[in-house]
């Protein structure tokens, strides 16, 4: 089922999404990859504050290529989400509403998704140039020294994703395999 939602994402919105839903996100999302996640993790361990209010936000695991003339961002495809698995449960427990990436998540992340009523979306890998057309603004807001891994605030319109793990823990990567195997 196709759904259109606005980011940031409320718990009510998260709970309305189901594994396998096609979703189009409009609003504000943030980017953060490995280095930014490690820095946030270290700041929290020292008792500091995150550079963004994480509550209900969406983090897109992406590091863009340079923007072409007249565009706010270059190619903007997802990176492998499992590289953030060490950090994701803590951010989810602090109120993160959703994550966008590609690939499977660890049991610890899935438990945190369920515990916090959040959602994990997948964006199509290899479609970064197409995905960038849904990004209407991009602004580095933290960790500029990390280059492409800096935290960016993105304004997106109808950004296409698929619900992989919903707030109840239903996992498209598992259910799709089961369905495929029974149809053979």
TrEMBL record:
Keyword annotations: Lyase
**Protein's name in the database:** Fumarate hydratase subunit beta
Hey, which family's this protein in?
Belongs to the class-I fumarase family.
Q: Which SUPFAM superfamilies match?
A: FumA C-terminal domain-like (SSF117457)
Q: MF terms per GO, please?
A: hydro-lyase activity
- Which organism was this protein described from? Faecalicatena orotica
Mind telling me which Pfam families this protein's record contains? Answer: Fumerase_C (PF05683)
This protein's record includes keyword Lyase:
yes
Domain (Fe-S hydro-lyase tartrate dehydratase beta-type catalytic): give its ranges: 7-175
The organism's superkingdom is given as Bacteria
Q: In the UniProt record, does the keyword Metal-binding occur?
A: no
Under PANTHER family, the record lists: L(+)-TARTRATE DEHYDRATASE SUBUNIT BETA (PTHR43351), L(+)-TARTRATE DEHYDRATASE SUBUNIT BETA-RELATED (PTHR43351:SF2)
